[in-house]
Amino acid sequence: MSQWVIKGLRAGIKTTAYPARAESAAGVSPGLPMAGDFPAGEIAALMACCPTGVFSERDGRIIVDHRLCVHCFRCVRGVNRPVGWQQTYEWGMVRDGQHEFGQPFRRSIHIIVVDAGDCGACLNEVKQLNNPYYNMHRLGFFITPSPRHADVLLVVGTVTDHMRNALRKVYDAMPTPKRVVAVGACALSGGVYAESFVCSKGVTAVLPVDVEVPGHPPPPLAILHGLLVAVGRKPASLMAPASSGMETSAPSG
Amino acid sequence: MNGAELKTEVEQRWPGQAQWRLDSADAMCEVTCARAALAELCGRLFLEWNFSFAGLIVEEHPEQWQLRYCFYGEREAGWVHVVTKAPLAERTFPSIVKFVHAADWHEREAEDLFGLKFEGHPQLGDFILHDDAWQENVEPMRRTFDPHAAMQHRKPDADWRPRRIVQEPGAFVMPIGPKYSGITESVHFLLETVGEDVIRSTPRLFYKWRAIEKLAEGKTVDQVLLLAERFAATTAFAHGLGFCQAVETICGATLPARARILRVFLGELERLRQHAGAIQEICESTALVVANSQAGILEEDLLRISCELTGHRYLFGLLAPGGLLCDLPSDSCARALEQSQQALKELNSLERALHVSSSFLDRLEEVGFVALRNANVYGLLGPVARASGFSRDLRRAQPYSGYETFNFEVPSEQEGDGYARLRVLFAEARQSVGIMEQAVAALQNGGVREPMRLRAGAALGWVEAPRGGAFHWVRLDDNGRITRYRIVPPSYANWHGFHLAVEKFAFQDFPIMLSTFDLSVAENDR
Amino acid sequence: MMPTQTLILLFFALCGAGILLSLVSPASRQGTVLAWVGCLAATVVVLAGANASLAGRTFSQPLWSLPALATTMTLNLDRLSGVFLSVTGLVLFPASIFAGGELNRAPDRHGGRAFTVFLLGLYASIGLIFIAGDVVLFLLAWEVMSVACYLLIVYARERENSQAGAGYLLLAMGEAGTLAAALGFLALAAGAGSLDFGAIKSSAPNLSTTARWTAFLLSFFGFGVKAGLVPVNFWLPRAYTAAPGAFVPVLAGATLNLGLYGILRVNADLMPMTQSGPGLVALVVGTISALLGILYATTDNDLKMMLAHSSIENVGIVVAGFGAGMVFVATNHPALAAIAFVAALYHLINHSLYKTLLFFGVGAVENQTGTRDMDKLGGLTKWMPLTAAAFLVGTLSIAGLPPFNGFVSEWLTLQTMLRSAELSSTAAKIVFALCGAGLALTAALAVTCFVKVFAMSFLGMRRLDENQRVVEAKSGTLAPMAILAALCLAFGVLPTYVIPALDAALSPLTAGGSAADALVPPFFAANPAHETLPPAFVGEFHDLGAQVGQGFLPGRGLVVLHRGGTENPVVFAMSTSYTLVTLIALLVLSYAIVRLWLTRSRQLARRTRWDGGVRRLLPEMTYTATGFSNPVRVVFDAVFRPTTVEDTRETVAEHFRTAIRREKERVHLVDKLVFHPVKSAALSFARGLAAMHHGRINAYITYALLTLLIVWIVFSLLPAS
User: Fold this and answer.
1) Does B200 touch chain C if contact means CB atoms closer than 8 Å?
2) B36: containing domain
3) ipTM over 0.85
């Protein structure tokens, strides 16, 4: 069995320095479309090419609702004028500002992960949080299978009809204080399944959501950021839904 | 048995009841037969003439039902579609499960979604539409289905009880899920036991049913391509490829060579990454922590390689009918190949280490045994079937996207236990890198997309996804919109046969065997 | 306080009066009669016993002389008998209330009048057995008791098929046991030349080894039948299951002790051991009985059958204690012998109390739900909270958890086993070590067994039919359970008062060894230093608070102390009294801190249990009793050796599995090895004899002539005298 010790030592330390420092390795994030100036003639084409209606226009600039983006890349591939792209990953957004968890939960929380009908990619990204690259244990985040021990409910997937009841039961079984983190475009808005008669348009149809992490799927770093936002160790992303009317600009990575 | 021999056989045995037609473009034989001859014909194809059952496709045409049973054999044998029709008012069909047990779930799904009755099938009902959540006669895939009415007047069965197969004093049903363990997909297991080991396991799936097939109806090809990529995103490229190939077959498109080679390259990259993920799951289930971490590192490496090359970790947004949506520079591909070779080196080193970890092997060897006969009867696919000795691979049997020009082996084992499945995963990963090397070497300059005109028609697209053969049936109308989209994913057959592996083993072995099957609930549930 | 003789006379008078009263009362009043008379009689006998054992007012009274047998029927109530009488009275008091309640609940069911008469007769015979001072009176009373037991089992009006068979088996085995015991007595009496216990006792030292072994084996296995020892106990589970619910508590709580009394009386009082052999035999048989009993109890789903097997287990522990005591007596360790006997007798008392309590509970459950199968019960705490609470006390006691009584006697028994280090014979030490390990295993299995019993019957989801209405038991059932629960707690919390009382009764058996001195150091004594305790650790114990209560509590102290020998100077100490106080204090304190301070501003939310998100958790999705005990069944497969009755698989359409039917049959090991062979041998012998009875007159005349011929030859060959 000593071969495993040697093997592990030889592999070295792979863990990212995030959140202490930004992660700059290639391939850690698919990025998201960037809001901002856009040639007036192309705006209509841009808005038409997006299957989920991410782009909207205000005063000649495009506004991006990242919660709807399903990473189809139609806005950069197969169009005349590709939209600007941000290779960031700090995407955690707060829904209505009131998410402060309080001091006892700042350093360590227990998370219960519920798959409410996801495609497998979001869940796989959540699973990557346990691999040596991200190692969420060092940040005090632990996965628990029982809702009685959980502080944060992390939901992936558009909530299918058959999972509504189970999701609700998990939430009810959690003791207060509790927070809900919705991960992935499907959980935020229903994604490409929004019109299906057995899918809800996101977790908000079933539960109150505190932190949202857009992406399809959001990379592990984005999910980490969302969790850090939930416990108040990182500020929420300034990317806000189009409906709030706020200006967006490229946030720091 | 090639097309001509089949024609002779069919006309001899079922005179007047079966008409045979060869579609030379597809190398697909279509046999239209009467309902009375259906079961026997399918039985002969499956049992005697060594065809594999791909799936049952039910289509509701304006005046008739059309049931299409797809079979495929090795290269010369090609595809055989057995089609039976009936007026809409008649809804009873003979069941073929006595001969082709692999059709079990297909018939149950047709009964749940279309309301068809299959005579001779002993266990219809409570499949996709759980009886304790839906009333009878919902039939969501019918054209006349009204979603609002159905959702408003729900009458679940309050007396629903789990089906009990074990009759032993003191036997009980242990429920697991739908939320269980740490980070797992939602599926409900009902394990019948008398306390020490699992005597019978019945998974209750379709908690994640999103009704993709219904959603796709009436949408454009581009919109449905998004659905095809995203319903089982861990093998997004493979399923997207299957869909694109179906559309390309309907429209008679020819692909540029560079597109075909890049498709092969990306498909194998995805296979390598998915197999690394499966190996990581197996190491995690046996709690061999260092191996789990090492495999996790490899999976993340491959995800980053994918993202660096294509912009997305799961290869979204690359496919388009007629080729690829965007070109990938050859040197980027070479760099990705180099990184993959490095990852393979680490993977091989991990395999060598695992082969000598006796405590790890103890959990896998002779555990979760699936016999070759059962693999055949249930129509298991992918590494699971190959570990039991049933080594039919679509890349060999029915090559697509230029696979016939590539040199590779299809690894298989004989033992059929958990360790055999692990060995097959490692071997296939090695073969994938080999194919990727050949692909990069064969890359030539050129375009990656041919313009394509959509036209009406229907075709089957198939692809050997990392988990096994996936089949996509697409029917387009004159406007280029989808009227029927049927997906038969590999996890469908493998979930069907999963209970074979867990019976008579202890509870502690259950999660390990589950991980060796590399099943995806999202893929199965659609 | 009245003299003991008067109390005894009063007891028999009450039993007689009760019988007469029952004969003239109508059927609907039988229960009341039984309850009142039974309680009065039990109270009297407790007083008589206490008088004898605590106050020392023993008596010996010759009754009638029987010149034909050269003996006088004597009554002899010494301290040992007094202890047994008190215990029996403590059990019969609530048992009478319970039985009376049962009779009133269903007046026709038990054949009320017959039941009352026989039960009161049984009380009288039990009392007589304990105070019998000579062999004849003893055996007479024993026979009356046996017949009364048989009639009580068989006389219930609603007969199940097994009842008559179980009754006959009880009677047959009982008679066989009586015969063996009688022969044992005769072996002793032959040496003494008299049937009087006193004479036997004084001539015991002169017995030869053969006579000793004969007397031991005959009396041990003879009384062992009544006590329930392997291999002669195969009647016990059947009889307990067949006995009506009103009688079974008496059967378990009172009549079981008679066998143990017999063993103790013969082998420790009348014939103190001089060799360690018999003691080791007793030890081994006791351990095996305990192990087998608890194994079958753990894997049984019928509440009554399980308690019957558990009785076998407890009797095994008592007999193991007796065996250890006998070995220590033979090897001249009086103090250790005293400790062993005290442990065994304490366990006997405890078993009577908690087993009766558990049988009350089972009776209540069966009356309310109509079933005894644990796989069909569940969730009864919701509807029968008081019954559940009392049953829980019984369960905790039998599992041996402090501060209840089971813990004290198990602790003492295991400590006794540890003291085997002081024996000189290696063989004896090995036997002790193995038996000690066996008893420890038994204790662990007992916890498993009773966790299963309580959890499956009272906790969890209700598995009964929805139409079955379940209500709390009546006060006629709850009051006796409360009494016994209180007694269980009392005997658990006050060991330091019980041990000296038992010691007074037992020290004559151990040639002056004093368990009280060894086990209960006088921390309350004015002089804190006792001669046998080094002052250093008296000081330590004082620091721990061993002298708390000095001023106002009577007795020697509240700590039970057990010291290793001189080669092994360790100290084991426990105090269930302090444990109880500390437990209550901690529970109250933690509740106060948590609810009144830490979470005072929080609201309490009540939600349903977490079930994995299933739509509805059904009873069939919960653990069954069989499932819970399956690991034990699998691990001890070599003992159980089940045979497969059915193992079939049903398949439809070639590949659809529709049913897997499996069933296994288990035959009790003792049945397989002892009962069935004996039964077949007896039956074949009887068949052989029956061959002689074919009804032909000519043959019978031939038999008569042959007999005459043989007798004439024999007599003619005898020397003239």
Assistant:
1) yes
2) 3-152
3) yes
